[in-house]
Structure to design on (394 residues):
């Protein structure tokens, strides 16, 4: 216990007030610029969580400035230098509304290492997160987007905890806190954000405490999401087991689950804000102890009653089928990146043709977005994937 006490650091907090009051707004759209990553591996996308109901969204993409106010607050110049370096690449983005987002950036260093920073934008007010050696995870929580640089592991003795940090941009200003370790738990508080980074983790926004959440029978967690009823959803699986949809209505005291696909490992899940529409893509079937075989036909399944009944609406070859999205009107999307690229539209009709460089899909409400797979642009849609716009989240 003495070891645990030594690890209970005080919260380090810096608050910088926003320099504006809400006035009449005008949209400013950034012109797009492409900077391709050279000599870098692809950074794996991290599945992120949403707190409470998803906010209604307008039709403006990128940055909206407030008239008569500065467009940014004081920022870290080292982070600015990294973000605007021509060799830097975008590693991920999370939206709350079209004008509230956070984006991670990375810059290669000698010895096959990287430095990381992040940008946060809230209705035209902009700030950055400090340069770190561990990657930034960006996520949405309530009405704000935030950036986390987590420790290398979730062990309390990990020496990278002092460098871990959380940066928020709220209506009160910029808040920066060092993350703090706490023992694993099986339950979590109503005000905590769930995120999955291999294991399921709970983050307290007020204290900066980050802890693992243990669920019986689950070794790996993916895609946690909280709908407007307060129910948390996620995909859970054992290291060598079948993937299942898990959900809890009592903050982890009890969990129910349903197998995604018999004999299939893992899987991908999307849930609409009201929790009624679900789109799921099962994982591949193991073959002779191996995780799966490219070419397997994966079904796209749709439920409009919270998962009680399912309909298979399409099927495409693995591993090119990914990124399910669910909307509140009983429809969804899924991205197929085979020889013929398609934006499948479960429950809505014939597929669209997606942008040729769209590499992944996410959504907040009816606002759909993704990153280029060969560049730094973010690609967004406000009409369920019919038309798209580009901007660079610097």
């Amino acid at each position: 216990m003495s070891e645990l006490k030594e690890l209970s650091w005080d919260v380090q907090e810096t608050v910088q007030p926003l320099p504006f009051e809400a006035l009449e707004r005008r949209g400013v759209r950034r012109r797009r610029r492409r900077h391709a990553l050279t000599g870098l591996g692809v950074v794996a996308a991290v599945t992120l969580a949403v707190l409470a109901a998803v906010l209604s969204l307008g039709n403006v993409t990128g940055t909206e400035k407030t008239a008569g106010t500065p467009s940014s607050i004081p920022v870290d110049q080292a982070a600015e230098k990294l973000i605007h370096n021509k060799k830097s690449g975008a590693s991920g983005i999370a939206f709350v509304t079209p004008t509230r987002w956070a984006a991670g950036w990375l810059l290669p260093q000698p010895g096959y290492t990287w430095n990381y920073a992040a940008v946060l934008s809230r209705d035209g007010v902009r700030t950055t997160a400090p340069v770190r050696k561990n990657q930034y995870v960006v996520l949405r929580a309530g009405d704000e987007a935030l950036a986390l640089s987590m420790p290398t592991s979730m062990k309390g003795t990990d020496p990278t905890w002092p460098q871990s940090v959380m940066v928020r941009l709220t209506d009160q200003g910029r808040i920066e806190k060092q993350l703090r370790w706490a023992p694993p738990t099986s339950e979590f508080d109503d005000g905590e954000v769930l995120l999955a980074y291999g294991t399921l983790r709970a983050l307290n926004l007020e204290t900066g405490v980050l802890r693992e959440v243990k669920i019986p029978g689950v070794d790996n967690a993916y895609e946690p999401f909280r709908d407007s009823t307060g129910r948390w959803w996620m995909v859970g699986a054992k290291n060598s087991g079948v993937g299942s949809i898990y959900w809890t209505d009592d903050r982890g005291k009890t969990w129910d689950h349903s197998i995604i696909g018999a004999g299939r490992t893992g899987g991908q899940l999307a849930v609409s804000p009201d929790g009624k529409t679900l789109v799921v893509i099962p994982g591949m079937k193991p073959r002779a102890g191996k995780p799966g075989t490219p070419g397997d036909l994966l079904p796209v399944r749709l439920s409009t009653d919270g998962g009680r009944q399912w309909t298979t609406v399409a099927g495409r070859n693995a591993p090119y089928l990914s990124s399910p999205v669910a909307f509140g009107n009983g429809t969804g999307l899924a991205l197929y990146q085979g020889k013929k690229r398609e934006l499948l539209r479960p429950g809505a009709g014939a597929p669209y043709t997606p942008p040729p460089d769209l590499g992944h899909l996410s959504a907040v409400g009816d606002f759909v977005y993704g990153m280029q797979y060969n560049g730094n642009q973010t690609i967004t849609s406000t009409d369920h994937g019919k038309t798209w716009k580009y901007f660079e989240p610097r």
